[in-house]
């Protein structure tokens, strides 16, 4: 599990010493003697301090009910293959939750509201999510369930909104901020982006004519605008 995690995030992120580590491994403990509800409740309260540190939490589980629980809590499965230990009839699976990117409060709020917690996207994943969201910009049902709407970038940029509205607000705010300091060519890229997807007032061909650029240049500007917008969301 540890190898799988650092293969994913990069071995250069290994903490220099225990004191500098932001990573915790949760060992499952359960009490089956007297007053199991009270004792297990106390154990879970102690366990919650690990989450309050807003670090990385690793865990391995075997029972299907446990796997469903930690998936519902926003943990993501690590690719370790099937591992059977302790004579278990079900293979163990490894999971990770990175609260550094999500934040404790957005994580708790999502769980309490019955929503999946926001997910941290890599720069490449975020750029693909932005592009897909722009293509479906006027389809609220699709957008509400999109990777972008459920990303930590949108959660941070639009903390008081959810679903399609959160994606709309976050993209609008990110675009406004990055456009304020954009050089002329980048500003033109954002204008192309708005014409192509956000305003939806004309075809791509007509939008290219209005910007006085060729269709090839127009699509190049769109790609540049998407990249810049994703970077702006990543920096939030």
Please specify the SSE layout and strand pairing:
Layout: H1 2-9, E1 23-25, H2 36-52, E2 56-61, H3 64-72, E3 76-83, E4 92-98, H4 99-102, H5 104-112, H6 123-135, H7 140-144, H8 152-157, H9 163-180, H10 184-198, H11 204-210, H12 215-234
Parallel strand pairs: 1-2
Antiparallel strand pairs: 2-4, 3-4
Helix pairs in contact: 6-12, 9-12, 10-12
> Which blocks of ≥5 consecutive residues have pLDDT under 50?
none
When the domains are counted, the total is 2
Largest sheet: 4 strands, mixed
The termini sit apart by 30 Å
Physical arrangement of strands within the biggest beta sheet: 1-2-4-3
Name the overall outline: elongated
Order of helices and strands: HEHEHEEHHHHHHHHH
Please estimate the helix content.
55-70%
Please give the radius of gyration in angstroms. 22 Å
Indicate the mean pLDDT. 87
Report the sheet-strand fraction.
Answer: 5-15%
Indicate the structural class.
alpha+beta
Number of strands: 4
Tally of DSSP helical segments:
12
Can you describe this structure in just a few lines?
This protein has 236 residues and is α+β, with helices and mostly antiparallel strands. It has helices at residues 2-9, 36-52, 64-72, 99-102, 104-112, 123-135, 140-144, 152-157, 163-180, 184-198, 204-210, 215-234, and strands at residues 23-25, 56-61, 76-83, 92-98.
């Amino acid at each position: 599990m540890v190898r799988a995690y650092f293969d994913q995030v990069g071995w250069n992120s290994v903490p220099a010493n225990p004191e500098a580590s932001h990573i915790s491994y949760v060992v499952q403990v359960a009490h089956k003697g007297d007053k199991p509800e009270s004792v297990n409740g106390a154990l879970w309260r102690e366990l919650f301090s690990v989450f309050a540190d807003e670090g990385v939490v690793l865990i391995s589980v075997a029972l299907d009910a446990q796997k469903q629980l930690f998936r519902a809590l926003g943990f993501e499965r690590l690719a370790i293959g099937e591992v059977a230990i302790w004579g278990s009839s079900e293979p163990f699976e490894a999971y990770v939750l990175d609260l550094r990117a999500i934040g404790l409060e957005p994580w708790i709020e999502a769980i309490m509201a019955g929503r999946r917690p926001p997910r941290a996207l890599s720069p490449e994943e975020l750029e693909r999510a932005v592009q897909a969201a722009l293509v479906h910009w006027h389809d609220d049902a699709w957008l509400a369930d999109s990777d972008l709407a459920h990303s930590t970038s949108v959660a941070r940029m639009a903390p008081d909104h959810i679903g399609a509205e959160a994606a709309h607000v976050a993209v609008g705010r990110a675009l406004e901020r990055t456009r304020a300091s954009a050089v002329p060519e980048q500003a033109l890229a954002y204008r192309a982006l708005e014409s192509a997807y956000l305003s939806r007032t004309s075809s791509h061909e007509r939008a290219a004519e209005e910007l006085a650029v060729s269709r090839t240049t127009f699509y190049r500007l769109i790609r540049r605008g998407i990249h810049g917008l994703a970077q702006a969301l990543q920096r939030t």
